[in-house]
Amino acid sequence: MLTPKEYQTRTLETLKQYFATCQKLGDADTAFYNLTKQIHGIGIPYREVKELPGLPYVCLRIPTGGGKTLVACHSIGIAANDLLHADAPVVLWLVPSNAIKDQTISALKDRKHPYRQALEEASSSVSVLSVQEALYVTRPTLTAGTTVIVSTMQAFRVDETEGRKVYEQSGALMDHFTGIEPALLASLEKHEDGKPVTSLANLLRLHRPVVIVDEAHNARTTLSFETLARFNPSCILEFTATPDTEASPSNVLHSVSAAELKADNMIKLPIRLETRPSWKELVGDAIALRQHLEELAVAERKATGEYIRPIVLLQAQPQAQHQDRLTVEVVEQCLLEDFAIPAEHIRRATGTDKGLEGLNLSLPSCDVRYIITVQALREGWDCPFAYVLCSVAEMRSSTAVEQILGRIMRLPSAKRKLREELNMSYAFAASQNFIEAANALEDALVQNGFNRQEAKDLIGKMPEKPQGGLEQFWTTSTETVKEVPKLDTLPASLAQKVTYDAQKGELTFTGVMDENEKVALQSCVTTPEAKASIERVFKKSHGLGTEKPKSPAERGEPFSLPVLSIKQGNLFEAFEQTHFLEMPWKLSECDPRLTEAEFSEKHFDGKVVEIDISDKGKLAQRFIPELQSQMSLIAQEKTQTVANLVYWLDRTIPHPDITPSETGPFLTAVVLYLVEQRGFKLSHLYHDKYTLRQKVTEKIEQHRQQAQTLAYQSLLLPECPTPLVVNPNVCFSFMPHEYPYNTRYEGSYQFKKHYYKEVGNLKHTGEEYDCAVFLDTLPEVKFWVRNIERRERHSFSLQTTTDKFYPDFVAMLTDGRYLVVEYKGQDRWSNDDSKEKRALGELWEKRSGGSCLFIMPNGKDLEAIRMKAQS
């Protein structure tokens, strides 16, 4: 099972929160506005599609390489659970082409594939069908679990042969329309005699499908909306890197940034670009770089066991009559004859050349190192070994490279490499003008889902190659060293990074030098002057003393601070929720009564009960209640007993910390109380079983919180047998290369002491901004970081009774102490949440023995921060 990355989990949590808000408010429009206001501080207006009034229709924006399909698979269970309230959802999965359709069906049917495993995580029974197979689907299949029908949007056009079959009467589907509730007939297309048309389209209308739209920007037309409306969907979820923002703007619920992908090791960034007017020299440089990367990959495999074989994607020109062009044939001939590349290392991949057909490029037995294409590789093609894009054509427009650029950006195994060059992508363009080529690359990145400012920052010039060879292809630092160093005494790993030009008296170091390497190099010389020169090389490699100094993170400076830890015997562990979840408690002894306020007798009767005039003056139908009523009618169960209802509740309510021997008696008591004391009919409870489940889950959570609060508070006491302490050996470390901000600060003030090059998730005005500027100018602060909320692997946190507390700012002081600042406006400084966080921060400070400081200034009292830093 492939565990979702942190940014993927946050994306799914936002979707879950949206559906829960839809259910609570009964309105997709208001839910979207309220949730985006909660996330961004400003609500985003919801753009309703007139053909689909009231429908939850949202977009999840994930750039190329971010795993959109995996997120889409997980989203199905969320839609079924939190919006439809259905155990057996029907999903209509739409893709942009037949090639991607075939690949998607193959992956979703493969029980070993992560996509299929993601579907099965939410449903024990999963059926994946093509449209042709769906025309013969049986009723037991649809009621057994999740059914996913994969198609292209074009297949449902009535002018297509396949589309006509979707809307035609089919005897194979008749069983689906027998014995259904009369209330369900209203939504179906009917014959003149009032009987429903037994078509696949009508079957979809009956089951209110969840619609997944892959590459959704291709499907936002009036014709597409009219087509989708014919299936009466329950919701539409768009997954794309580039949502429509002009003609028919998407409702972007959640956006993932390039920084988030990079921090989770999904993509190779930045992109290093080189331009040359001579295309053959350009190809030669690309070949030299690929060979260098392969040498690094061999060393990487020896160190980690991971196999990588870097591949160059060569983009040739299309053929044209009466013109000499750099066609696929010309480029291939150049590789074979001018550079003596073995034929087995080369493959063509164009519309007519199928050189990659049936080839597994990831196998060590595969020899392919060069792939020649023109405009686009096969749709859905994915090869993380592709490191270098070499375009022999003038790179003047994004359309020339956008489809290929995304192919070189995936990081093999989604795991950071020890060699920095293997974490980056490379592009070579035949061009007289670097800026022109960089702009084309920038535009192509935007087309792959990166915002404009990200794209600008992700493209850099290839470092100059040293004289005498192409084997060293990375940042170098050179300094005059008059004494000839004895480099033969160095270990091989260091010796390969150092060269000495005896004629010029210059020592050159490749990469970023660490302290141990500096000491080893200084031991190769004897004079103070030579040692000082090596010290200057060390500083240069860290960007010190240059025109644009590197940030502490770019210099590789460590930033670790101690966390609250728990002492268990002679061992110390970071304090987390699991430590008080382990405290035993008995749910069976808790109050099972659900009051009228907790579970109302009022319930929806299956009719559209209310039409309002919205503040926009439009009619707004109560879509959500009508949807859930229809789904409950479809899912009516024949055998309705207390035992079966209790079993369903026990199976569908997560309770990893409670045994069945505890949940069984409690859930039985809940149901019996509702039936025997409050007079509910069992059929009513079955009809509203999803609402009942939600309320029971909340009741259990109340009891759990009470038990956990007692356990948590006992751990805070000094006399606790396993007390909380601050131990310098149990630390959180900010990772120099991983800073997963979602939005980037873009104000005029230039921060000088931020740990990372960028400042994430900070607006350019407001009180938090003022606090950041104050920290940046405080003499006692060596450097600081904007601590990104809910980034468990990448941000400092303290455990509360219910969640993790992520303070706003974390600073390293010049005297070696740590300062943590949580900014709270004066209006929130005294609320319960602030009191808990303040008490926890002060506990962390107290138990650190003076090495850690915590401050929550009361509103604009920033001088309190200065006083704390000077204390």
TrEMBL record:
<dbReference type="GO" id="GO:0016787">
    <property type="term" value="F:hydrolase activity"/>
</dbReference>
<feature type="domain" description="Helicase/UvrB N-terminal">
    <location>
        <begin position="4"/>
        <end position="244"/>
    </location>
</feature>
<dbReference type="InterPro" id="IPR050742">
    <property type="entry name" value="Helicase_Restrict-Modif_Enz"/>
</dbReference>
<dbReference type="GO" id="GO:0005829">
    <property type="term" value="C:cytosol"/>
</dbReference>
<dbReference type="GO" id="GO:0003677">
    <property type="term" value="F:DNA binding"/>
</dbReference>
<dbReference type="InterPro" id="IPR027417">
    <property type="entry name" value="P-loop_NTPase"/>
</dbReference>
<dbReference type="Pfam" id="PF04851">
    <property type="entry name" value="ResIII"/>
</dbReference>
<dbReference type="InterPro" id="IPR006935">
    <property type="entry name" value="Helicase/UvrB_N"/>
</dbReference>
<dbReference type="GO" id="GO:0005524">
    <property type="term" value="F:ATP binding"/>
</dbReference>
<protein>
    <submittedName>
        <fullName>Type III restriction enzyme, res subunit</fullName>
    </submittedName>
</protein>
